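anyone seen this seq b4? input:
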Amino acid sequence: MPHSIKTTATASIKPHRSLLGGAMIIAGTAVGAGMFSLPVVGAGMWFGYSALMLLGVWFCMLASGLLLLETNLHFNPGDSFDTLTKVTLGQFWRVINGVSIAFVLYILTYAYISGGGSIVDHSLSSFGIELPQSVAGLIFAVVLSIVVFISTRAVDRITTVMIGGMVITFFLAIGNLLLDVSSVTLFHPNGDPSYFPYLWAALPFGLASFGYHGNVPSLMKYYGKEPKTIIKAIVIGTLIALGIYLLWLIATMGSLARSQFTDIIEQGGNMGVLVAALSQVIESDWLNTMLNLFANLAVASSFLGVTLGLFDYLADLFNFDGSRKGRLKTAAVTFIPPTVLGVLFPNGFLVAIGFAALAATIWAVIVPAMMAYQSRKLFPNHDSFRVPGGTSLIILVVLFGLVTATCHLLAMADLLPVFG
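predicted toks r here
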């Protein structure tokens, strides 16, 4: 057993950490980009195949998250991906994984700044306030980065409030759409009769919709070595996200014609464009306000969850301590690069999500499976948590990652059909 592996340290119990808070961090991280990209990228395969894809992706991403937790439990709370990969897989995979995780979390942060700027700009325009989208994105990033700088508990509390607000505004705004959903529009749309071929190009966006893995080390740091609590938080959080996604697809695809998504895609497919199209369907000004509020809460909570994972990862990578000065250094390297990109390129939402999914197949799918496989060799008699399914589940997760990455590369090369 390598001398550098830390197995003797005992994590302190965190008796006052609520299960709900952890589940909300997971759900808040997932719900955001996936929420608003799924109807757009799923327009080709429409509702039936979109729902089946989401179910399959949810299972594989849940499995990879639990495999990551299995490895993480052999280390000290606070150790993140850099430490885990260095010990279990060696320096080569440490570098590969470090590059991919930094790219994914940075590009998702940029995507949320882009989406946040778009929806904030759309929301303000309804009040007669006109701002450049880049300025709206800058305001969005600065305000929320302060929350992450304060503490994990601040993210927990604010995200819990945001998720509660999302649930309320979601059902107020979307409930009206759900009541008027057309079964013909939902299950038998007009236009191109082919559906299944569009699934493959959309698969990477499904993966990105469940990209909560950066928060698994954060949850262990938050709860301590309490696998039962963390597992429940991950399962509940991802199920909340899955349920919201399915209802969202029903509301959007049951209300907007398939042909309307062609126009949405031509305008860039950003959050504000989709919300504007739905606003034309909702006749009530008050319900339109609820829809705008929901969109703002969704992207804000997702931004907080993703940047919390990036913040903890960079603190571990650069050995920044938890003092005010150390957290300020971590905040600088976390938020400045994606915020600058958000100001310079405010409409990169969908493109950023696609590239994030490509890199996420490495650090959120393939590497967690490999680390779990290797950690079972390093700790053969360890009585900690082990994910059911044995090696077969690990192989399934790796294959899922490889297929998803291949689909994105083929779509980039125009070798897969892409709707619109």
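Residues 91-125 form the longest helix (35 residues). The chain is about 75% helix and 0% strand. kinda curious what u guys think
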